[in-house]
Amino acid sequence: MSHHISTLPTLLSVAGALLVLTFLTVAVTWINIPEPFNVIVAITIAVVKATAVAMFFMNLYWDSKFNSVVFLLSILFLTIFVVITLLDTLFREGGLPVY
Amino acid sequence: MNRIIEYMLPPQRSTTASDVDSLFTFINVSGFILFMGIMITILIFVIKYRRKSEDDVTPVITHNSILEVAWTVIPIILILIVFSWGFRGYLTLTSPPANAYEIHVSAASWLWQFQYEGGGSTMNEVYVPVDRPVKFIMSSEDVIHSLAIPDFRIKMDVLPNRYTTTWFQATETGESILYCTEYCGTGHSEMLATVHVLSAEDFEEWLETGLEVDEDMPLADVGEQTFTSAGCNACHSLDGTDRVGPSLLNLFGSDRELVDGSVVVADEDYIRRSLIDPQAEVTAGYPANMPSYSGRLNERQIDGLIAFIKELQD
Amino acid sequence: MADSSQKTLRIREFPIDENPGHTYLNHEKGILSWLFTVDHKRIGLLYLGSVILFFFVGGMLALLLRTELLTPAQSIVDADTYNQIFTLHGAIMIFLFIIPSIPAALGNFFLPMMIGAKDVAFPRLNLASWWIYIFGALFALYSIITGAVDTGWTFYTPYSTQTGTSVVSMTLAVFILGFSSILTGLNFIVTLHKLRSPGLSWSKMPLFLWSLYATAVIQILATPILAITVLLLAMERILGIGIFDPSLGGDPVLFQHFFWFYSHPAVYIMIVPAFGIISELISTYSRKTIFGYWAIALSSLAIAFIGFLVWGHHMFVSGQSELSSVVFSFLTFFVGVPTGIKIFNWVATMYKGSIDLKTPMLYALAFLFLFTIGGLTGIMIGALSINVHLHDTYYIVAHFHYVMMGGTVIAMLGGLHHWWPKMTGKMYNEFWGRITCGVIFLSFNMTFLPQFIMGSQGMPRRYFNYVDQFQGLHQFSTIGSYLLGVGFVMMAVYLLWSLFKGPKAPSNPWKARSLEWMTSSPPTHHNFEYTPVILHGPYDHHKPMKEFRMGVAEESESPDVIEIDKDPA
Amino acid sequence: MANQSVATEKKSHLQHHFVDEDQQFESSKMGMWIFLVTEVLMFGGLFVAYIIYRAWHPDLFYEAAQELDVALGATNTVVLIASSLTIALAIRAVQLDKIKAAINYMAATILLAGTFMVIKYFEYMDKFGKGIYPGESYTYDGLEHEMAANFFSIYYMMTGLHGIHVVIGMVLIGWMIIKAKKGLVHSGYYTPVENTGLFWHLVDIIWIFLFPLLYLID
Ligand code: HEA
Ligand code: HEA
Ligand code: CUA
Ligand SMILES: [Cu+2]
Question: What is the pTM of this model?
Answer without folding.
Answer: 0.92
